[in-house]
Design a protein that fits this description.
The protein has 635 residues and is an alpha/beta fold. 44% of the residues lie in helices and 14% in strands. It starts with a helix and ends with a strand.
């Protein structure tokens, strides 16, 4: 490991590895297939970056997260390590150039999305790229029984035919024992495989859950009590905006984020939060993946996620710097009842799936027997309104159609504007002579983008308009006019959600649905949902211990800092006594503020020292407050 430690010191500035990193790196360098279960912020990327730098060749990193790819490539380049990435929105020419660089250049990392592994262009170059390691990030996506199944991951194993002697490192932050086994099977791990699981303990992170009728007041109390940066996770886009506005009105710097914003808006909001210009970001789960901000003090779940995997990963974005931080879950009984009903919405009948599939094809005006390889802008709200369908059910059906590999559906899609010339140079010269007003634009395109006669070139409209000193609106007008003349093929920038058809349209009644697999996914979902609801209702057990047990980490001890551990710490009363006293205190003080003496009198059936301990706990958790006159009031 001497070489690995030297590389760690040279490029990252650390003298030693974190727990388990060294063992994982040693396994990879020994040529073993390796599964690494490392919680959010545990340093997963180091486990493939360091061994790659120890050997000749390049590491192929498979990741579904464009933001994470870009961030890691930039970080590596800043360290003087050459890295490349291929993601959606890149032109054919850009992808080909990247693959040539990977094959013939001195690059150490190539990041790709799983969908790119099957393209003809990638397969053309893959055999001449010297790969020393295949790293599969977010490896849980390969399991149909996990919480984030993505079918393209199933085809990663095909790479092993090209590189039979290259080890595979599968990395994930959260996977149950069943999913861990599935990852190893689907990636065709060899017999010498090595599984490693880092502890799920986060000693600096305090978990708590509150059953409340008014979440807004509790949220304000938490964010006023705990200073610093924070995230508030919400289930709907509408709620993110409402929460941000409510916090702003109460003097807390806040903004909102969701997949429905433009690419530019998302980047701006994200950067402002990372740079602490915005203190709190209210967001859907579209936010956070691939973002490394160590000083997040609070993560609040305003709505309950439907899986402990999601909750643990999102809550784990708090306190990556090791400082005291808080993960707070707010819920009520009605919300948990609604969650249970989600099972039928998430897994509708075969008849509903076929009905929505037919409606979708009609909405997109897709003739029978066509569609394979075509992409369409898709507005789910217009579709729901036109066909009088429920938006949640539509989302569920789209997910099933994705898992059945009929379509892909991307809510966060960005494709830059692209131009390709449709006539040869001689014809273009004749056009310029008869239409001199377009000469500057044509020359600017030819000078700025190589290969624009052969392949669509992604263009930067802002730079182009500055280059020829015309306004942006005027440039767009001229590009559209050149398109009308059939001189160029111009595709404007796309930021709308996209549906991409992997197969031609069939008649709805002929659509094949694997009901057996859907039933198994439904059962796995119900199991995850039950675990999440049980976590909300926990009263006696340490929340960290329960998370550990769920993820097959049975070595955790009581954390001492979650709400349940604190309750035990401040009380030598039984659970029944504690619940009875705390309920009575909140009820009595909610009606009329009262002194300690008055409370002792009202609760005379309990010992005074026990009442005091429960009061201390309730005050520490901001469930009651004491005013200047010493009167106790329920929060």
């Amino acid at each position: 490991m001497t070489n690995a430690v030297a590389i760690l010191k040279k490029y990252w500035g650390y003298d030693a590895f974190r727990p388990l990193q060294q063992e994982i790196i040693d396994s990879v360098l020994s040529g073993n297939d390796t599964l690494a279960i490392m919680p959010t912020g545990g340093g997963k990327s180091m486990c493939f970056q360091v061994p790659t730098m120890s050997k000749e060749g390049l590491c192929l990193v498979v990741s579904p997260l464009i933001a994470l790819m870009k961030d890691q490539v930039l970080n590596l380049k800043n360290k003087g390590i050459p890295a490349l990435s291929i993601y959606s929105g890149m032109s054919f020419t850009e992808v080909e150039k990247t693959l040539k660089n990977a094959a013939y250049g001195n690059f150490k990392f190539l990041y790709v999305s799983p969908e790119r592994l099957e393209t003809e262009l990638f397969l053309e170059y893959v055999s001449i790229i010297k790969i020393n390691l295949i790293a599969v990030d977010e490896a849980h996506c390969i399991s149909q029984w996990g919480y984030d199944f993505r079918p393209p991951y199933l085809r990663i194993a095909a790479l092993r035919e090209y590189f039979p002697d290259v080890p595979v490192l599968a990395l994930t932050a959260s996977a149950t024992l069943e999913v861990q086994k599935d990852i190893c099977e689907k990636l065709l791990f060899k017999k010498n495989q090595q599984p490693f699981q880092q502890s799920f303990e986060r000693a600096n992170l305090s978990y708590s859950a509150f059953e409340l009728s008014s979440k807004q007041n509790k949220l304000l109390t938490i964010l006023k009590k705990v200073a610093g940066s924070g995230i508030v996770y919400c289930k709907t886009r509408k709620r993110t905006k409402e929460i941000a506005e409510m916090l702003s009105l109460n003097g807390i710097s806040a903004d909102f984020y969701h997949a429905g914003l433009t690419n530019e808006e998302r980047n701006k909001k994200q950067e402002d939060w990372i740079n602490n210009k915005t203190r709190i970001i209210a967001c859907t789960n579209a936010f956070g993946m691939g973002i490394d901000k160590p000083d997040v003090r609070t993560v609040v779940h305003y709505d309950v996620p439907d899986a402990l995997e999601n909750y643990y990963q999102e809550a784990g974005r708090a306190g990556r710097d090791g400082q005291k931080s808080y993960a707070v879950l707010l819920f009520n009984e009605a919300e948990l009842s609604q969650l249970k009903k989600q099972v039928q919405i998430k897994f509708p009948s075969k008849e509903i799936i076929r009905k929505i599939y037919g409606a979708l094809c009609n909405f997109l005006q897709l003739p029978s027997g066509s569609g394979e390889g075509k992409s369409f802008d898709f507005d789910i709200n217009t579709f729901a309104k036109n066909f009088k369908l429920d938006a949640y059910t539509i989302n569920s059906v789209l997910k099933i159609l994705e898992q059945e590999e009929l379509i892909t559906y991307s809510e966060q899609f960005f494709s830059p504007p692209a131009v390709e010339f449709k006539i040869d140079k001689q014809a273009l010269h004749l056009f310029e002579q008869s239409h001199p007003k377009y000469v500057e634009v044509i020359k600017a395109l030819l000078r700025s983008y190589d290969g624009i006669f052969d392949f669509p070139a992604a263009i930067n409209e802002e730079q182009l308009s500055k280059f020829i000193a015309i306004k942006g609106e005027h440039l767009l007008q001229m590009l559209n006019e050149l398109k009308a003349y059939n001189i160029i093929d111009y595709t404007p920038q796309k930021e709308k959600p996209q549906i991409y058809f992997l197969q031609n349209r069939v008649r709805a009644e002929d659509l094949f649905i694997n009901e057996k697999n859907i039933l198994k996914r439904k059962e796995a979902y119900e199991k995850r949902l039950t675990a999440m609801i049980d976590f909300c209702m926990l009263k006696n057990q340490c929340r960290s211990e329960i998370i550990g047990i769920y993820f097959n980490d049975h070595h955790l001890h009581a954390c001492g800092v979650c709400d349940n551990c604190l309750r035990k710490k401040y009380s030598n009363v039984s659970n029944d006594e504690f619940n009875a006293i705390s309920t009575a205190i909140k009820k009595l003080s909610d009606e009329t503020p009262m002194s300690s003496a008055q409370l002792f009198q009202q609760l005379s059936t309990f010992k005074e020292n026990k009442i005091r301990k429960v009061m201390i706990y309730l005050q520490e958790e901001n469930l009651i407050t004491v005013n200047k006159e010493g009167l106790i009031k329920s929060s």
